[in-house]
Structure formats: C-alpha cells, structure tokens
Amino acid sequence: MIEGNRGKDLPFLKGIRVIALTWVWAGPWMGAVLADMGAEVIKIETNQRLDHQRITRILEDPGKEFSQKPDINHGLFNITNRGVKSCTLNLKQPEGVEIFKKLVKISDIVITNLSPRVMPGWGLDYTRLKEIKPDIILVSLPAFGSTGPDKDYVSYASTIEAAGGLSASFGYPGEEPVLSGTYPGDPIGSMYGVFSVLAALNYRSITGRGQHVDVAQSESVASLIPEVTMEYVINGRIRPRMGNRDEIMAPHACYPCKGEDKWVAIAVSNDVEWRALCNVMNNPEWTKDEKFSDQFSRWQNQDELNKLIATWTKDCTHYEVMHKLQKAGVAAGASLNIEEAINDPHIKERGVFIEQTHPVAGKTIVYRSPWTSALTASHDPAPCLGEHNDYVFNKLLGISEKEIDQLIDKKVIY
Amino acid sequence: MFYNVLNGVKAIEYGNLISAPFCAKMLADIGTEVIKIEKPERGDDSRRLEPFLQDIQHGAERSGLFQYLNMNKLGITLNPETATGKKMFMELLKRADIFIENNPPARMKRLGLSYEFVKRINPHIVMTSITPFGQTGPYRDYKGCELVTTHMGVVGNISTREGDVSKEPIKYPAHLFSFQAGLSAAAGTLGAFYHQRVTGSGVQLDVSEQESVIQNLNAATARYSYAKQIISRTDVLSVAPSHILPCKDGYIYNALAEEHQWWRFVEVMGHPDWADNELFKDATSRAKYWDALKPLLLEWTMQYTVEEIYRTSQEKGIPIGAVRTADQVLKDKQMAAREFFIEMKHPGNGKRQYPGVPYLFSDINREEPAAAPSLGQHNEEIYCERLGYTRNDLDKFREAGVI
C-alpha cells in the first residue's frame, strides 16, 4: 500500500485507516487532525446513543425552530468531526461487534474516548483486537486513564481541568476561581491522542509491532502547567491566582480601548521595550517617575502603572495600539472576538478558518489544524449520520446490499 | 526517556522558552536523541523562569521549569552568528532527522538557517518552526508571548463565563497555550516524520501559536457560523448548575449538564424541600433562577469537604469535579496509581518530583528519565566524539565565543 508512493509528495498519512469510537470533543478533534494529515477516519456512530454534539442545541436564534434532526442542529459536531466518514453500527448487537472486527482487520488504528469500561464490555479490549489484527494500534483517551482506582469516574472537560490543577489556579488576583470559558482540557487531550497515535505508528514502521497507548486527560492538563505543581514541590507554596500578571514582566495586562468591551494585551519584557512603549505613548510626564524606572519597580507598582497606560489606550482602537506597538518592537495583541478573528487579514491570509458547504446544514465555518505544510490534505465537511454506510459495509467489507438491508431491519446497522 | 519508541532518531532543537523546547521534550520522552543548542553564557531564557529552589535563581541551574522542559536532552552551547559556529550548526543538521526551532523568521533567514537553506544540505529533514503567528502573513514578524497570542487567538477574550464587563479579560494560568503549541507541534512533527520514513522526503511544518489557541474555539465558531452570535466572557450559562461552588475546605466543579445527574445530586443532598420548587424544575430554569438556587446549594456544600462531596457524588455516577490545588494533585491516588509524577535528581535542585508523561504504552517498558543538561554539559561529547574536533579546538571555540 505504501511502497508505490515512495518519493511522491502525499499527505502525511495517505493510506492509513483509522476507526473512531469518539464523541463530544476530545475524541472527534483527534480524528479531525488525523484526517487533516490525510488518514481515512471512519467514525462509528449509532442511533442507540448519538454523539451529544449531534443533538446539542447550538441555534439560540429564537427565529429558528429546533428540530431533533441530528444533521441540522449539530453546530459543534460539524466543526470537530470535519473530514471524517460516518457509518452507523450498533455494537450492543453481537452481529455489530462481528462487523466491527472485520473493519479492524483492514484498519491500522482504533481511537476512542469512550469510558474505559465500554469497549471491554463489547469484548473489544486491546488483547482481543490484537488477536484480530496483530499490529493494530489502539489509542484510548479517558478522563483519568483506563487504569487506577478512579478510572470509572465521570467527567466533563471542566472537571478534568479541575482534576489537573488548572481551575484552582485560574482567576483574578485575590479572588475566587473563575469558570472555564473555552474548556482547553478537551483539545489538549486530543493532541496528546494524536501524538500517541503517531508515536505508535512510527514504532510500527520501525518494529512491525502494534501498541495500546492510554492517555489520561487529567494528567495531560497537569503536564502543561508544570509551574503549578513544581512551585509546591520546590518551595512548598500554592501558586496564587494571577489573572494576566506575569512573575517578571510589567506592564503585562489587558487595557481598555475605544469601543464596547474592547481590550488590547501588552507585554513588556525589558527596558528597551519599555522605552519603545513610552515613545509610542508620546512620553507623558508620568513615565519619567522613578517608580517605573526599571523592570522590578514597574512590576511592584503595576496596578498604578496599568491605570496610567489605560488613560492612553482608551482613546485608540485595540488594533491601532497593537500595530503601533508591534512596529516599535513591543509585544501587543488585540483581544479579538470570534468575528474579528474570522475577518482578520492575517488569519485570512493563512487560511485558518475555512468555509464549507455542508449538505444539510449549509454554510459552515470550521478551522484547520494549527500548522501548515506543503502536504496538508483537503478538508471535507463533517458527515451526516451514516453517510458512508454503503462505502464502509459494501465497498470496504463486501457485504451485499441485500444483507445490508437485513442488518438495517435487525437494527445492527443502526 | 520514558519509552524507547523512536530508537535511533536524531533531532536538533534550537529553541528558547517554552513552545519549541516542549515540542522537543515530547520527542525526547519517547526516545529521540535531542541535541539542544543554547546560546553561550546565558543559555535558554527559561533558565531564568520561576520556580527556583528557595526562590534563589543563582546561575543557570535552578529553574524547575527549565528542568521539566529539557529533561532527556543533550545540551550544547553554540553561536551560529559566528562563521565557525554556523559551519558546526550545519554539520549537526546534516546528521539529523528532525530540526525544531522557535526563532523569529527574519532571524533564521539572516543566519542562513531557514528551511530553504536547510533543505539544501539535508533534503530529508523535517523542520518544525514554531512562531507566534506563523511563517507567512502580515503579522509573521510580530512579537508574541503567552498573553498576546492567547488574546489574538480569541481565547483570552472568552476565557471565562459570567464575567464582569468592567474587569479585563484574563488568560488561563501559567503558560498553558505556549505548552499547547509545543504539544501540537510535536504531534505534527511525528506526522511529518512518518511521511519522511515512508517517502524519503522532508518538509517544513509551519506551526503558529495563535492557531494553536484557535483550535480551542469550537463553541465560539459554531455559534458564529450558525447563529451569528459572538460569545462573550460575560455570557450567563444557559444550563445550571455548571458552576464552581465553595465548600468547607475548597471548591467543587458542579458540572451537571444532564437532568438525571441533577436529580441524583438532589438525592445526595438528602432531597431538600426546595428542590421540588417549580423554579428549579429543569436545567434552563435553574440557570434562570441561579441567584436564588446558589445560596440554597451553598448551605449544603459548606457543610462538607471537597473529598466528601467528590467521592459521594462520583460513587453515584455524578460528574462532580474536585478543584484540586497543587498539593492535592501531587497526592492524588489516581495519578499515583499510574505513576504520573516521577522523581528525578538534578545537580542544581537535588532530588525532586516532576510531572511525568500522561500516557502509558502497553507493550514497551517504561524507563527512568534523565535530568536536563547543565549549560554546555555535552559540548565535549558532541563536538569531540561526534564531530571530530579536538579539546584544543574547543578551547579556541570558547575563546572566540563560538560555544
């Protein structure tokens, strides 16, 4: 399968087939990134229990009627499942499990973020998968891991962030912890999942052997904020909630700008940048005050400093401040909202957001993986439920149309 | 390393601070030989980032953050601004499979280290370049850092919910998204490396920290795409409870999105009379009357500890989270059962606990990780034993500011 392609510039994972038992966010995003790399990702779904994101209402527009039809209302689903194929297979039925095993035989990788008890419950643990295909790669992405005393604890991204030490450290200085607004705990797990898939795939290409890699999402979060636990290990202290503050840099905050709820982030890391900032502000008298004369004194007096800088920013737009400061060599960025980001000239030129036409939902905006290369695959829209049943059951597995009809009647293909 | 997955694979890291060093660490953790190139004398700037043992920075070897970011690597010093240094850099790249860096694109071009030059001396190399805004586009030369790229990637603007419009939007703690960029880059690099093994061709992977932040925007993008709504940090949650609530000794994350979860939690609370109030009949209504509901919940939660509420609820399958502080994360029995935290000895900081890796390989034995290199620790090994220079040469290189 691979040999004939030698020397040709193909997407990274051309010819690699992935079976995805994924739902909500962390699992599907792992599949979408692998699809971006050119893998064929087949998502197994079932009407028995639809992916939350297919039925989570996103249309808050009161003019629009909410229907239970899963293809129309699945705004979140269409973003996190773009580029993958969908077939419906009911694994609660033994015949469904047998068909799944046939699919494993012709695949390279199985990815899942279902609870760790689910696949073994269907008789589909790693040992069994290995009997079916000796070099199969299984990557599981449970909240707390597939081993250990709390492995069956239930969670959302928010509670995973809490377990990993993120929530307790998140908030304004001296105040209570705040709610997580974007739930990074999930996509962080996804990327660890992709990393694990590709580590195992490279290992297979070196040794010929498969692998089960089990990624704990709570540990994934903890591994990206080592400062939190290490502060305690090294100095016995709990890191306080710091808002936008840095340990060394000041100014290091968001400043109000012209317009409603518009802000610009400014970070100054040394005296050269501080002088550049003063110049852009036209050197008001207060900048010459001794209490702002070096990095340490600026840090000590940062609350007062921030108020003074705000007197300058409030009459400019966030973009004006950003461009002026960046041209002067100071790190500054407009605090963009989603609409501004989608229309931003830089983000547009790099093609980060992509407008697709979904066969049912219509115009849909998605975003690609966080990198580009000469070899990125094309981006297909997310699948409708069971859109690729014929492809998977008939073309790949050779099940006749008549048999397929019978399997549909028996709610095996369901 | 933690697992010997990529035995014999060689990478060069020319990185600073977090994103590229973390990307290279992830490859080193799975057996890649990573040679980290640092600038002579000062080294990587993360050597001067907290936490330091007893808060004393004292030289280049006491940053816990640096030691975490650079475990399992070999470390050398080299200045590619000098002609000899540049030549040695190229010799190292010739022998490498992977090159990871996070320098400004203009600087790499000036040094003759951008991909167009590198591929001429090693067409098979996978070159991963991580920058705040990527290698192309009008902001390619703009400066970034955790604060700036988080806000330019929208997450800064919507990091919280039910926020106060008069307060500035805040970033997530520590360097979360610089780390996430390094993590994403490591995943991408392994994809490109697999392609290199199969086809023999190299490629440059252009990783943008801003785009790494954007991958967190599924809800914001969906709402904008289908309802033209712009999510704001002041938005009130549409279902409740999905909130952080104080209890006797800390906080719980009370995330009960589904109706049956709420009713099971009501039972855990001993089914107080107010639970049957019409105002609290479903998640939407509970959100609407949250100000009335919250004090009633607090009356109960404040009587119990985090552990009591967490364990009792989870045993009934209710997805309540314990808001763990650092000390609690470190002694968490679940993470301990998976041996997530590891102990490592470093000459600067002694024997300490560090976060390990969040994955377990089923059929490969886990190994002991190696401590991060001191500044220039492997100069002799790399320059003399690998590249064939003499010790006398090294002295001259030092004098000339090359290493």
Provide the descriptors you would attach to this structure in a database record.
heterodimer; A: 414 residues; alpha/beta; Rossmann fold; formyl-coa transferase, domain 3; 2 domains; six-stranded parallel β-sheet; three-stranded antiparallel β-sheet; 14% strand; elongated; disordered N terminus; B: 403 residues; 38% helix
Describe this structure in words.
- The complex is a heterodimer of chains A (414) and B (403).
- With 414 residues, chain A is α/β, with parallel strands linked by helices.
- Helix content of chain A is 38%, strand content 14%.
- Chain A contains 18 helices and 12 strands.
- Chain A has helices at residues 26-36, 52-55, 75-80, 94-105, 118-121, 126-132, 157-163, 185-207, 217-224, 226-235, 271-280, 295-300, 302-313, 318-327, 338-343, 345-349, 389-396, 401-409; strands at 17-21, 40-45, 85-88, 109-112, 137-140, 211-215, 252-257, 262-267, 331-334, 353-358, 362-367, 371-372.
- In chain A, the strands form 3 sheets. A 6-stranded parallel sheet of chain A has the order 3-2-1-4-5-6, sandwiched between helices. Chain A has a 3-stranded antiparallel sheet with strand order 7-8-9.
- Chain A is elongated, with a radius of gyration of 25 Å.
- The model of chain A is unreliable at 1-7 (pLDDT under 50).
- Chain B has 403 residues and is of the alpha/beta class.
- Chain B has 2 domains: 10-215 and 338-399, Crotonobetainyl-coa:carnitine coa-transferase, domain 1 (Rossmann fold), CATH 3.40.50.10540; 242-329, formyl-coa transferase, domain 3 (2-Layer Sandwich).
- In chain B, the strands form 3 sheets. Chain B has a 6-stranded parallel sheet, with helices on both faces. A 3-stranded antiparallel sheet of chain B has the order 7-8-9, with helices on one face.
- The chains are: A alpha/beta (414), B alpha/beta (403).
- At the A-B interface, helix 3, helix 7, helix 8, strand 6 and helix 9 of A face helix 2, helix 6, helix 7, strand 6 and helix 8 of B.
- Strand 6 (211-215) of chain A pairs antiparallel with strand 12 (359-361) of chain B.
